Amino acid sequence: MRKLVTSVLAGIGLTLACGTSVYAQEKSLTIFWAEWDPANYLQELGNEYEKQTGVKITVETTPWADFQTKAFTEFNAKGSAYDLVVGDSQWLGAASEGGHYVDLTDFVKENKVLDKMAPATVKFYSEYPGNSGKYWSIPAEGDAVGWAYRKDWFEDPKEMEAFKAKYGYDLAVPKTFKEMTDIAEFFNRPDQNRYGIAIYTQNQYDGLAMGFENALFSYGGELGDFGTYKVDGIINSDKAVAAAENYRKLFGFTPPGWTNAFFVENNQAITEGLAAMSMNYFAFFPSLINEASNPNAKNTGFFANPAGPGGEQFAALGGQGISVVSYSNNKEEAMKFLKWFIQDDTQKKWAALGGYTCNKAVLESAEFQNATPYNKAFYDTMFKVKDFWAVPEYAELLQQLNQRVYPYIVNGDGTAKEMLDALAKDWDATFKKYGRGQ
Amino acid sequence: MATTMITPLNTSSRAASRGLSDISIRNLFIIPTIVFLIVFNIFPLIYSLGYSFTDFRASTNAPANFVGLKNYRELLSDPYIWNNFAVTAKYVIVSVVGQVVVGFGTAMLLNRTIPLKGLITTLLLLPMMLSMAVVGLFWKLLYDPSWGVINYVLDLGKFQWLGDPKMALYAVAFTDIWMWSPFVMLLSLAGLSAVPKHLYEAAAIDRAGPFYTFFRITLPLVAPILMIAVIFRTMEAFKTFDLAYVLSTQPSTEVISIRLYKMAFQEWQTGRSCALAYIVLIMVLAITNIYVKYLNKVKER
């Protein structure tokens, strides 16, 4: 019996010894991201890095639905499982104040990241608090909300004629929200099982918020003052009210039951031929030009979020920056990887693989803009993006927005003014609770 | 009594040769279970009670501050939380009553000699063997106004089962009834087959009508086992999460566990969500206690 125990222990010891020595020889980095195509592209880029340096890169993924939960569970436990994380822009506050991310301010300055990347992307993916000059990540996957549309419906001569007769101008890709609303109304034909438009309405996380922001920002509205945390008079301004009313109007032209829609449903609206236009993140557009996943691939076009009545044109930001985890045992190696990642050549490769680069030079190149039908719209969008609050309590603010905005947009409860006034009060109370803007 | 419960150790067995007594064997089996329970259930339960009086957030390194009853006070005065409770109560009542009616009814139909009875019973049990999330996903497709089968079969046009704020909760409850009626049926069937046949014969001789027989013989005798089914289903319905979360996002279907999940794992308000979890726990305990009291009374009869 004792012999058995000794031999088993010896065996375990030997395995551990071998294991650690192998581990020490082979350098490796683990990057955590959500489970989607860009993560596979990043793995391919990582394989390239391994060829050049011998450092093995593993991209670990988890479904979107529990990406946030899993990442923060690991952070909260101060776990070293991940060396780098490609995290959502809203996490910046929670992750930096919580001490989960390594401060990259010096890195950003030394490597001139600000000159290399599109300014809006550094501002929203990397900087926290707003305008503080402190950086916590490097823009990795640029993303924003854009629009897909049915080219064949738009270019049908009969439709064009009928549209011109009804609205007095030519049917074309909408340049303003007004035009987009007209077109949505025009194509909304429930008897033919065709609908005007597909928008985000899901209130479980940030779906509805992203959709509403598209209208809000282009209408010249703002969520609030990111410096002073003042919200009253901003989120419930006349511009914001008009934006909410327009979004509610657009909801009237969505397919039936469009009350729980996010990226999956909105791509379905195009693949199933349900809607003339559909809002979605650029990251989900590759599957719309693939004939295997979209029977209407040849007839699908793309455009940037249109302007509001004042001529302002913005879009809601998606996408992620890549950050170094404070609890990693390979921080130095991780920094080396980041240095390699931001080089123009690497960014070019990243874009060619299918990643959405934030690199200014690559974005501006004709090669990139003509590579896919949506790259031009992506380029147009990435220089005019705005984002949600990035404070640590952003999820509470999001929940309050969902509670107020959803019943108005989807069920038509109350008025836009009432609901935004109530939201301003909720947000104000939340900011007071956390001692912000006092 | 206790000694006869434990089978005496065979003196020639390996256990006996190693000198393990009955008590050691009992401990070997029971202690790990108790340790597991304490470490993963009892300890977190008590620990989270402490957290419920603080403003602790698991997502930051900031220390937790003691805030007294603030979390409870704010939660109980939040109209959204009250709405979540109202939704949950409505959901529990609709779904449990539905399951008992359908389940018990099916059991009555099956409690006779019919051909292929075994096969039919097995097929009827299939829904409850599926995963909740999977059931949710495919009922979402069935309910879909654009390509769902339900509207097509019932010729309802574009009726929005899950999109309509008034209908959504019933649609979710209906799915739950579909899934869990077989469970009630199974327990009822066991209860029904245990009713002595001679009681029915006596009733027939006395020319008792079918209603009289049902309410005076069948129901009272099946009641205890039916109550157990109701307790199980009430507790389960109270903590429903996956079905409602997958099926609909209407505020009228946001049951308390969804709110709790968002508060704990999206907003990371750990302290406050512990308080909410405790409020829910106390409610479930209270309801279960009423049932158990009633069950004991029924058994005494």
UniProtKB/TrEMBL annotation, chain A:
<dbReference type="InterPro" id="IPR006059">
    <property type="entry name" value="SBP"/>
</dbReference>
<keyword id="KW-0732">Signal</keyword>
<dbReference type="Pfam" id="PF01547">
    <property type="entry name" value="SBP_bac_1"/>
</dbReference>
<keyword id="KW-0813">Transport</keyword>
<comment type="similarity">
    <text>Belongs to the bacterial solute-binding protein 1 family.</text>
</comment>
<keyword id="KW-0574">Periplasm</keyword>
<dbReference type="GO" id="GO:0042597">
    <property type="term" value="C:periplasmic space"/>
</dbReference>
<feature type="signal peptide">
    <location>
        <begin position="1"/>
        <end position="24"/>
    </location>
</feature>
<protein>
    <submittedName>
        <fullName>Extracellular solute-binding protein</fullName>
    </submittedName>
</protein>
<dbReference type="InterPro" id="IPR050490">
    <property type="entry name" value="Bact_solute-bd_prot1"/>
</dbReference>
From TrEMBL, chain B:
<feature type="transmembrane region" description="Helical">
    <location>
        <begin position="91"/>
        <end position="110"/>
    </location>
</feature>
<dbReference type="GO" id="GO:0055085">
    <property type="term" value="P:transmembrane transport"/>
</dbReference>
<comment type="similarity">
    <text>Belongs to the binding-protein-dependent transport system permease family.</text>
</comment>
<keyword id="KW-0472">Membrane</keyword>
<keyword id="KW-0812">Transmembrane</keyword>
<feature type="domain" description="ABC transmembrane type-1">
    <location>
        <begin position="85"/>
        <end position="291"/>
    </location>
</feature>
<feature type="transmembrane region" description="Helical">
    <location>
        <begin position="213"/>
        <end position="232"/>
    </location>
</feature>
<keyword id="KW-0813">Transport</keyword>
<feature type="transmembrane region" description="Helical">
    <location>
        <begin position="275"/>
        <end position="292"/>
    </location>
</feature>
<dbReference type="InterPro" id="IPR035906">
    <property type="entry name" value="MetI-like_sf"/>
</dbReference>
<feature type="transmembrane region" description="Helical">
    <location>
        <begin position="28"/>
        <end position="47"/>
    </location>
</feature>
<feature type="transmembrane region" description="Helical">
    <location>
        <begin position="122"/>
        <end position="142"/>
    </location>
</feature>
<feature type="transmembrane region" description="Helical">
    <location>
        <begin position="167"/>
        <end position="192"/>
    </location>
</feature>
<keyword id="KW-1133">Transmembrane helix</keyword>
<protein>
    <submittedName>
        <fullName>Sugar ABC transporter permease</fullName>
    </submittedName>
</protein>
<dbReference type="GO" id="GO:0005886">
    <property type="term" value="C:plasma membrane"/>
</dbReference>
<dbReference type="InterPro" id="IPR000515">
    <property type="entry name" value="MetI-like"/>
</dbReference>
<dbReference type="Pfam" id="PF00528">
    <property type="entry name" value="BPD_transp_1"/>
</dbReference>
<dbReference type="InterPro" id="IPR052730">
    <property type="entry name" value="Sugar_ABC_transporter"/>
</dbReference>
